[in-house]
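<instruction>
Derive structure tokens from the sequence
<entry> Chain with its tokenised backbone below:
===
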Amino acid sequence: MPRAAALALLLLLYGLCGPLQARTVYRCVQKATVSMATAPEPGSVCKAIEIDDNAVQTPNLWGNFGVFSGTLYEREQDGKTVYSTRNLPGSTPYLRFTMATPPGEPAHAGLGRVGTPQLNRHAPQFRAAAKATGVDDAWLRAVAHAESAFDEKAVSPKGAQGVMQLMPETASEYGVSDPLSPAQSINGGARYMKSLLRRYNGDRTLAAAAYNAGIGVVARYGGMPPYAETRQYVDKVLALYGRYREAMGTGPERPAL
């Protein structure tokens, strides 16, 4: 986790603990994930770390692990209100936070902006891909709109290419020999999206997050990654999906598959 994000969360936990003093923050490990908490977490191995508010440098409490979630949760424990970055039973979201995408991660903001649906861009290719895969035509167009604004020649700074902005390894996996071909890109992107929707039981939010940041990142964080770029991207795709469904006259949202 970037130092700035860890420090910001730590300062937030400080603020919830009372007046300035030397205080205790708990670093809790459970199933190879780390959380920060104001009290030991049930089911976790927790280490109490005392930190002097007057210390010149805040220690690295996260070690080699990433932050578990992008949300700070509140719950009752032993008659007291406690806070943690892990979603334990009885917790309710208290504060959602984001962090910058670490270098080398595929998460990206996308090249397209939310705007008017563009129904004439590669329409036959989207219809064919939707029919072949069973993935909603409007959903595929929303992803393409957010990814490339339908520009078949688009190449992102991170190496994604074409209408669906497929990374080279993904394009190869789905048989896309020419990522700048609209038909190949849309077909490959639709097949990839179908596999994501199946993986996440039709959850469009997680499928979009994985399309943006990668399956491994979604698994690492146990759901939506806390990256600001990914959260903005998912919000963009969901907004566009509603607009495309309305523009295409497809009525209420149907099951993802």
